[in-house]
Design a protein that fits this description.
The complex is a heterotrimer of chains A (277), B (276) and C (296). Chain B has 276 residues and is mostly helical. Helix content of chain B is 76%, strand content 1%. Chain B has a two-stranded antiparallel sheet with strand order 1-2. Chain C has 296 residues and is mainly α. Chain C has one domain: MetI-like (MetI-like fold). The chains are: A alpha/beta (277), B mainly alpha (276), C mainly alpha (296).
């Protein structure tokens, strides 16, 4: 009736036409494998899915995000065949099965201009509980420390607290970040800040030129290599979670993720692959 | 008069200040994103979690989602606005109820829309993660904007025109299509522009409804990642994705520019119908 | 056919109009039912008062004090309105009454583009450009000011475009009459144009307030997200919506239910505002008879 509706119809037609011309070879794929969950695992799962689809023309791998808890809930309810979780399963989740496909270290980061290169556990505890408030107390350039913490429920927080023997309420933070990138951007913009993120994420960003650096913990450098050989203590598992009997495709996908031939995809995200030949 | 000059000067300053701020943001966007922009970016699909390749499939998903939202929301919004503007005398209480509920709807957080959309469209209605779920959820979100703006436009149509129409014996329906709507067309355009803008900029609602899949969708029931979701993912989730996040944002801004221009053009031509 | 019988088309139109409006109105009911359903578990387990009286927000430890976050939502929304309303109305006035046509067109196009920029882009700009400016590079600038500025930018287009559209609809005769009476642009704007356009301007403000209250992503990125009472322009705070977004993805069933209670509180607060507004609202429409042009 009205020209705006004509406009909307035109838009629909135009994009239909475009998608009919281009588009991927998704025709003929009759079955779908759905994964939902952690936004940390989602990009990795997407890349694995792309390669899996190339080798298996009849399956579609749809990866959705929404957080580790959604992944676990969807695995339980059957809305997803596989749930993605960036943490270990809790005691209340013993009815599910988790396959660890990679490990991801948790490292401390500061602004690139910070002269310090390493911190010991005592110093970290002091900073995060508010007992140490100035960088000069640790031998750095004087400045009030801006503490960046992670939001509750996040795996990086849980790993961090457990390693340093802290409780959530003990931490006095100036900024609380949700995603890793938020923490990284905060720290890159504040010279006096300190935080902790996934080591893999930090490494890729440092290479891309973001002004942060990873601190060694108790003398052990925070690198993916150190996580791989076990010398770096703080790490979390990246899990594919299933409930009950696995569908055929789910099992094949999990085996695919464990296949050493696909470890390059995991390494590209700077995670540590868990391969099972 | 001095106060007149001062006021005009103030308004010029305010508006130029606003312009400058907007230009600053867009230029900042452009500067950070132009390096990653290329023909390849616009014509290839994402690779390496979005760090390589382009956004072609996402542009299609986005167009489909926004089109669905518009096609669903516009008629409902239009008719509701007509009822609120016209029938205000007869069912004043009903009108006030509708208006109140729409005001509340406009304040619902986008993440709640996303979770609601997921529970209602994806699960209860069984549409799953799909363009349709996303479009319908967005339609709910832009409905208050559309209705409010169109209602205002309709209310402002001079009474003489409505009286003349009924004096001529025109039915209500004819009055609507040939008198009211053409007169209110600029207001409808504003509503559409604001609505489309909101739809294109929505992120949280779409993550849970139209989803994360980067493949080109083949029908409305396929999951497809909207451009705004991609920008969020590249900026906040994918390490090293910054440049492409900004490039995608730049493309989005250009899309907006074009779409808004089209809407304004359409409204102008519609209004011309009245003059002839 | 009798001259008084309503044509079939009109009867059909009435049905269509009513059902559309009813559909639109029922959406909020659906959403309320959904939110309440999800929140029920926590409400039953903890009781409603816990959410108002608990000291802090430590959901994994059983403390659910929502008030600081509710205060933060209020503070950021007010802060955004304080900045965006004058700027938006001013921009609308400028475009409708003062600006030469090409300038107005350019300005409007710019504002329309602003209306569609994703919240995440505003959040990014805020995090990468604004926050370091506010904090001065040394301390973190994430907090009330950053959140308010980002929100203000997001709601400015709605206010500006609605104001401009409303002013454009003011009948020419009113403005010409004002000019004939010797009123300059200031007096005309203050006493004739704006009052005549009041409905449209208020509609824009209401939409803008709704957007500000419900905005999630952008605020999340620049507010600092520490659960605390709003303490200062550069002190961090966490809004109710930011809280939901921050913790929803990783919350267990009970925690998730608690987050929905926060959503419920938000919606109840908005309902209250809507009721209040409807009691005070209802400005007259501008008609060509000048019925709405009341003096300030």
């Amino acid at each position: 009736m009205s020209t705006p509706s004509h406009l909307a119809c035109l838009l629909l037609l135009a994009s239909t036409a475009i998608s009919a011309c281009g588009g991927d070879a998704a025709a003929g794929r009759t079955e779908t494998l759905i994964l939902t969950g952690s936004s940390t695992v989602a990009p990795l799962a997407t890349e694995l899915g792309v390669r899996f689809e190339e080798q298996n023309p009849t399956i579609r791998v749809d990866v959705q995000s929404g957080g580790s808890s959604r992944g676990i809930a969807d695995a339980r309810s059957g809305h997803a065949q596989i749930g993605m979780a960036s943490r270990a399963l809790k005691a209340s989740e013993s009815d599910l099965a988790a396959e660890t496909i990679a490990r991801d270290g948790v490292g401390l980061i500061v602004h690139a201009s910070n002269p310090l290169t390493s911190l010991d556990a005592e110093a970290v505890r002091g900073i995060y509980t508010g007992k140490i408030t100035d960088w000069s107390e640790l031998g750095g350039t004087p400045g009030r420390i801006t503490v960046v913490n992670k939001a509750e429920g996040r795996a990086t927080l849980a790993v961090f607290l457990e390693h340093f023997g802290l409780e959530s309420r003990d931490v006095h933070a100036d900024v609380i970040a949700g995603e890793n990138e938020q923490a990284i951007k905060t720290i890159a913009g504040t010279t006096s800040s300190i935080g902790y993120v996934s080591i893999g994420t930090a490494e890729i960003d440092i290479e891309a030129g973001i002004e942060i650096k990873l601190l060694a913990l108790d003398g052990v450098p925070a690198t993916t290599a150190a996580v791989a050989d076990g010398s770096y203590p703080m790490a979390r598992p990246l899990n594919l979670v299933t409930f009950g009997d696995r569908t055929d495709w789910a099992q094949r996908f999990i085996d695919f993720a464990h296949d050493p031939k696909n470890a390059d995809l995991i390494l590209r995200e700077s995670f540590v692959p868990i391969s099972k030949p | 008069m001095k106060s007149e000059r001062l006021f005009a000067g103030l308004l010029w300053t305010v508006s130029m200040g606003v312009c400058a701020l907007l230009v600053w943001i867009v230029v900042d966007l452009a500067w950070r994103g132009i390096g990653s922009l290329s023909i390849e970016f616009l014509t290839s699909v994402p690779r390496d979690a979005g760090r390589a390749g382009g956004i072609s499939s996402l542009l299609i998903s986005t167009m489909w989602i926004v089109s669905t939202a518009t096609v669903v929301a516009l008629p409902i919004g239009l008719f509701s606005a007509v009822l609120l503007a016209e029938g205000a005398q007869q069912n004043a209480r009903f009108a006030r109820l509708v208006r109140g509920s729409l005001d509340m709807l406009s304040a619902v957080p986008s993440i709640v829309f996303g979770l609601f959309g997921n529970a209602f469209f994806c699960i209860t209605l069984g549409l799953g993660y799909s363009i349709l779920s996303g479009g319908l959820t967005l339609a709910c979100m832009i409905l208050p904007i559309l209705i409010r703006t169109i209602e205002e436009a309709l209310r402002s149509v001079p009474a003489e025109q409505k009286l003349a129409a009924s004096a001529l014996g025109l039915s209500r329906a004819t009055t609507l299509t040939h008198v009211l709507l053409p007169a209110a067309a600029p207001g409808v355009a504003v509503g559409l522009v604001l609505g489309i803008g909101r739809a294109l900029s929505e992120t949280a609602a779409l993550i849970f409804t139209s989803g994360y899949v980067t493949r080109t969708p083949h029908d409305l029931l396929d999951s497809g990642r909207a451009l705004s979701v991609h920008i969020y993912d590249l900026a906040m989730n994918i390490p090293g994705g910054n440049g492409r996040a900004y490039a995608s944002a730049l493309v989005l801004v250009l899309m907006l520019f074009v779409l808004n221009g089209l809407v304004r053009l359409a409204a102008k031509r519609f209004t011309k119908r009245l003059a002839t | 056919m009798s001259p008084y019988a309503r044509p079939k088309r009109d009867r059909a139109l009435s049905v269509v109009l009513l059902s559309s409006a009813a559909l639109a109105a029922s959406l909020i009911v659906l959403i309320l039912v959904f939110v309440f359903g999800e929140a029920r578990g926590a409400l039953r387990a903890e009781g409603f008062t816990a959410f108002l009286t608990d000291a802090g927000w430590h959901p994994t430890d059983g403390e659910f004090g929502l008030l600081p976050m509710a205060a933060a939502t209020l503070a950021t929304t007010l802060g955004a309105l304080v900045m965006a309303a004058p700027l938006g109305i001013g921009a609308g006035l400028f475009n409708a009454l003062i600006a030469p046509r090409p300038v107005a067109r350019f300005h409007r196009a710019l504002v329309e583009v602003l209306a569609g920029i994703p919240s995440v882009v505003f959040g990014l700009w805020g995090l990468v450009v604004l926050v370091p400016l506010i904090g001065g590079g040394e301390r973190s600038g994430q907090g009330l000011l950053a959140a308010s500025v980002v929100l203000a930018l997001m709601i400015l287009p709605t206010i500006a475009l609605s104001t401009e559209a409303a002013l454009e609809r003011v009948p020419r005769e009113l403005l010409q009459g004002a000019a004939a009476l010797g009123l300059g642009p200031v007096a005309c704007a203050r006493r004739v144009a704006l009052p005549a356009a009041r409905r449209g301007v208020i509609a824009g403000l209401v939409l803008a307030t709704g957007r500000a209250i419900g905005e999630t992503m952008a605020v999340l990125m620049v507010a600092g997200n520490v659960v605390a009472w709003p303490a200062g322009l550069r002190e961090p705070l966490r809004t109710l919506t930011g809280n939901i977004a921050l913790e929803m993805g990783y919350a267990t069933q009970e925690h998730r239910s608690v987050l929905f209670v926060a959503g419920l509180v938000l919606m109840l607060a908005v309902a209250l505002l809507v009721v209040l507004a409807s009691l005070f609202g209802g400005a007259p429409t501008a008609t060509s008879h000048g019925g709405g042009a009341s003096s300030a």
